[in-house]
């Protein structure tokens, strides 16, 4: 069952733009030509986004391909599909990659076992910090200014071949 998602490259050096396109093209087995615009939050950097369709798991493959360049900021989303949760990946330089399951509305979902583990392993006063970490709050906070910079930017739609 096919699914879809979005790749947001929030910030990348100009010299890496073509490499990002090639990495996405390798995963989707289709040519990619993104519309790059200036990233006002990071002078000299570029940003682009593209919607994609493909089989379940494509989001993880895209995130793995893009994390080759530790200097780029990106997000990859994958919508839930038959038998598979949705996923959200966020990458921030110095923080690395964050992955979470997401529901139909795009909210991060923490399973019962994960919550029980967090509650059992931390002092009550540290619970808020542990939950923030499990929900990727620090990644979200660092990416937020970059997201606003993309409002109204062009979007490219891509389909995975095969």
UniProtKB/TrEMBL annotation:
The superkingdom listed in its UniProt entry is Bacteria
Q: Which InterPro entries match?
A: DUF3145
Please identify the protein, giving its name as recorded.
DUF3145 domain-containing protein
Name its species. Micromonospora matsumotoense
């Amino acid at each position: 069952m096919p699914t879809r998602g979005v790749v947001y490259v929030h910030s990348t050096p100009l010299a890496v733009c073509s490499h990002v396109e090639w990495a996405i093209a390798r995963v989707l087995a289709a040519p990619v030509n993104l519309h790059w615009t200036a990233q006002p939050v990071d002078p000299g950097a570029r940003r682009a986004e593209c919607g994609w369709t493909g089989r379940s798991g494509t989001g993880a493959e895209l995130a793995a391909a893009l994390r080759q360049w530790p200097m780029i900021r990106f997000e990859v989303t994958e919508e839930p599909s038959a038998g598979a949760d949705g996923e959200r990946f966020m990458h921030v330089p110095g923080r690395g990659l964050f992955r979470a399951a997401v529901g139909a509305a795009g909210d991060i979902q923490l399973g019962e076992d994960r919550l029980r583990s967090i509650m059992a392993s931390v002092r009550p006063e540290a619970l808020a910090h542990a939950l923030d970490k499990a929900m990727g709050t620090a990644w979200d906070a660092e990416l937020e200014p970059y997201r606003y910079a993309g409002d109204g930017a062009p979007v490219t739609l891509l389909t995975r071949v095969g």
